Each structure stands twice: as C-alpha cells, then as structure tokens.
Amino acid sequence: MKNTDPQEIENSSQPSSASVAGGAVLADPAVSKFIPGAWFKKNWPDYLLVAILLAAGLVVAWLPVGWTRDLKRPAQAPNYAWASFLYTLLFGGAAWWLWRSRDAEERFRQRWLALALLVFLPNLFNIWLRYASPLTATDPRPLFGRDSDVNLYLHYGISLTQGQWPLNPLGQYIEYPQLSFPFFWLGAVLSGSNPETFYWVFPVLMTFCQFGAAAALYGLGLKLGRARAAFLLAAWVAGCPAMLIFGYTRFDAAPAAILLAGIYLAIPGDFKGEKGLAAARRFSLWAGLSGFLLAVGALVKWLPAVVWPWLAAGYWRTRNWVALRNFAVVTVVSGLVLTLPFFAINSTALLYPYKFQGSRRLIGESVWFLVQHTFLDPTKSIPDKPWGEPPKIVLGNNWLTLMQVGLTGLVFVLALWRLWQVREARPAMTRWAAAGLIGLTVFTLANRIFSPQYLVLLCWAWAAALILRPVGWKGLLVTLGLMALAAGANFEVYLLGAYPDTWVRDSAILFAAAFILSGWLLWRALSRPQKD
After folding, report:
1. What is the mean pLDDT of residues 47-68?
2. Cα–Cα–Cα angle for 442, 351, 369, nearest 5°?
C-alpha cells in the first residue's frame, strides 16, 4: 500500500545523512585532489601558467649566449633589453591573472616542484649552451673559458685541495672572507681540478644556491600568506635573462640564500599550532639560528651582516629578551668560532680581504662617480672601463665611506623613528626586517665600488622586502618593473664596457632605478600600520 503519512513523505524528500556526508567529502579539497577530474579542473590553469613561464625562461636563457663576442655587443644590446622587458611583462600578466583568481593564494601554497623547474631548467640550459658553444668559429674552447672570475675560483679551489691558503696569480692572498673557501674547494673537488669541467660544475653549484634563495623567499611567502607573490618573484629573479650570467659565474647567490634563510627564521610563524610559552621558546630558538646564519653569511661575503642592527632593534622593541639574547650571543660566538681557527693559521691572510677592499678607490660603476662626473669634475673624465678608476678622482675614500655609512645610518634612524610604536611581534619583525634589507641595498648602492654581480643579492633582498609587507599585483608589477630596469641596465654596463658614452648612461639608469625601488620599499616598510 502506498505510504500517505505526511511526516514520512517530508522525510523522504530530504537528502539522506549518507548523501550529505558524501557531498561534504567530495567538496573537501584534501579529498578532491585524489579525484582526477576535480583535480584537473582546479589545477590545469596553474600548470598552463607555469608551462608558459618555463617556456619563456628557456627562450630567454637561449638568447644571451653570444654576449662575449665583442663586435656584436652594440647590435645585441637592444635584443637583451627587449627580452628582459617582455619576460617581465609576462610575469606582470601572470600576477594580474593570479590576483583575479579566487583561491590562487591557497593553490600556490603547494608549488615547490614548479618553482624548482623554473629555477633549475633555464639556468642549467644556459650553462649547457655556454659550455657547449665554441668561443669562435675557429676556436673550439667553450665560451666559459673567457670568464676570468671562474678561472680565478678554480685557482683558489686547487690551492685549497692542496692544503694551502689561496693566492691569486699575482701572489696576493684571496680577497674574500674565509667561508667562501668551501665553495671553491667543492668545485675543484667535484671537477677533479679540470678547468673544462670546473667551468660548468661551479655554475651548477651556484644554481643550487639560487634555488636555496628561491626556497627561502617562497617559504617566507608561505609563512606570511603571500605565496603567489613569492612564487613569481623567486622565479623571476632566478630566471631573469639579465641576471643569469652573474648568478652562476660568481658566488653572490650563496650569501643571498643564507641571508634570506636568516630573514625567514627571524619572522615569527604559527609553529604548527603551538601557542604561548611553547611558541615563544620556538621563536627564541629560531632567533639564535637566524643570528648563526647572518654570521655565516657575513663570513662568506660580508653584506648579510648589514641587516643585523635592524633585527636586533626589532627584538628589543618587541621585548623578546630571550630572542634578542640568543640572536646576539649566537651571532658573536659563531663569528668567533668560525674566525679564530683561521686567525691562528694565518692572521695576515685572514685580514687581507678587509685591508684590500678598504684600500680600493672610486671606480666608474659607482653612484659617486656619476656625482663626480656630473657636478664636480669640469674635465668630465671617464675611465676606459666601468670597473676602472677614473683619470681624476675628486672624492677621496674617507668622504665616500662617510657618505655610505651616513646614508645607511639614515635608513636605521628612520626605522627607529617610525617603527618604535609597533610592538606586536610579527608586524614589528616584518617591518624591521624589510627596513634592514633596504639598509643593505642602500649600503651596497652607496659603495664606491659596485660590481655587476652585486645585483644578484640586491634583487633577492628587494624581493624579500616586498614580501615582508602586504602586496597586491600592482605593487608586484612595480617591483618587477624597477628590478628589470636595474638588472637590464646593469647587464648592459657590463656588456658595453668598451663604449664609454653608452655605459655611463646605462649606469645612471641602474642607480636611478635601484634607489627609487629602495626608497619605495622603505616607504612601504615604514608607512602606517596595515593588516599584517
């Protein structure tokens, strides 16, 4: 007999508890990722975007291979400029698209493999092309053979494998701090001290350092809820066509990776749900590890030490006394432990890099040369190469050091003035860290000697300073544009070093873009509190 009970009819029209539970399970992202159709529908646009960025990275890695051929340089320069512009425009479009997507931030919390591909493949492809390409049509030696710094690193590495303190070909001690030694030694060991092998082994080592910097930046983005911005910035810096040659034929990627890892550890996180005293203990432990990494970075190549006062001030202002103690004590003890054995072996050699760098005078690629050339030198003398000293030097070392320290100190004073009111741990530390990174960039840009490879560390520092504060796609695009302008101009200063009128113009563009970007990022760090 047909059921006519109204209550039973009403109950039968409602979904069963089993069907409700089943729908909830299917809607759960943790479960839907195991269902092929749902996973594909959700993720295919992201993987298409990554594929497009990767294809662009491989194309621009192929384009600059011929940069060492002198006679072609002026004709090639516009091609490199266009390549950097279009590459950056593509990343800007990617940012715009990701910010329009509703759940892109959550999706880009799981893109480690994609990031690794975007870092490694363009760099390794460019390394292979340079190693496989002949020097000229009649000279079969690899294109890398013309890079004097790579040859010098091999010379240092061979000395280290023989248990000797490295000397340069002129018989002078190595001009780098002692913790740069492991990179040269490892390159020599892995290559068997064979020059032809070292030409690609050392760049591959530096590519791993690039990925270390990218991973630290991406991890910082994950910690602060800015994963998509960090992903795009890391991929851009590691694969920018104007940065490739400096990223892996020098070792500035190593201190950059160590610096960003130290910044990552200095910023409070959720510590997997730990609260109260447990979280405070973990934060204090990480503060000590951050101090250790900054000490190591400073003994690899100095610059990471510059951010130390800002982080210490952040711990002080937020009254994290245990974290401040750990940070300070570990930094000092680590520095002493990593220095005293070398001092005991050869104190003269250990101190030589500091004496050597302190004795160097103003060179062409320096913001102060542009000041001298424009305002102080009526003869308008220009050195024959950007890395050479000008025929006439008006600004002495003492004045230049005073101005460099003064500009860096100004950044610190501004941070004290604006940030002393912020006491909550995470907002305070993100602001102090961002200001410290800008202090580092100003210190580097205001140096009387600016080498093209310095921009590797600067770009990673700018990227981290951006991620440390809330960022939208427009802010990301501004940062990418100014970094591309600085990196492109920096590349062309080096590319066109034999053409004085051109490299002086490009040097002015480099420093203008770099100081504008640093000023804007400092303003973001010191502006009125936003939602952190």
Report:
1. 84
2. 35
Query: How many independent structural domains does the chain possess?
Result: 1
Residue 62 has pLDDT above 90, yes or no: no
Range of 428's domain?
A: 45-526
Does a structural domain hold residue 379?
yes
- DSSP annotation string for 30-62: HHHTTSHHHHHHHHHHHHHHHHHHHHHHHHHHH
In a domain, 322, yes or no: yes
Look up residue 193 and give its two tokens.
């001290």
3-class SS of residue 379: coil
Write the CA distances from 140 to 56, 68, 180, 204, integer angstroms.
Answer: 29, 14, 32, 22
Q: Are 154 and 198 in contact (CB under 8 A)?
A: yes
Residue 10: its pLDDT value, please? Answer: 40
Q: How far is CA 57 from CA 78, 243, 345, in A?
A: 18, 12, 46
Q: Quickly list DSSP for 62-111.
A: HGGGGGG-GGGHHHHHHHHHHHHHHHHHHHHHHHHHHHHSTTHHHHTTS-
Instruction: Note the pTM of the prediction, 2 decimals.
Output: 0.89
Residue 464 included in any domain: yes
How far is the C-alpha of 522 from the C-alpha of 391, rounded, in Å?
36
DSSP alpha helix (H) spans, 360-472: 367-371, 397-419, 425-445, 454-467
> Is the pLDDT score of 91 beyond 60?
yes
Cβ(419)–Cβ(428) below 8 Å:
yes
Residue 529 has a pLDDT of 56
CB 314 within 8 A of CB 327: no
Spatial CB neighbours of 288, under 8 Å, sequence gap ≥ 6: 326, 327, 329, 330
Dihedral sign of CA atoms 438, 295, 234, 488 in order: positive
Question: Which class for 510: exposed (0-12), middle (13-18), buried (19 or more C-beta within 10 A)?
Answer: buried
Phi, psi of 154 (to 5 degrees): -65, -45
In a domain, 1, yes or no: no
8 or 108: whose pLDDT is higher? 108
Q: Which two tokens stand for residue 311?
A: 């982080």
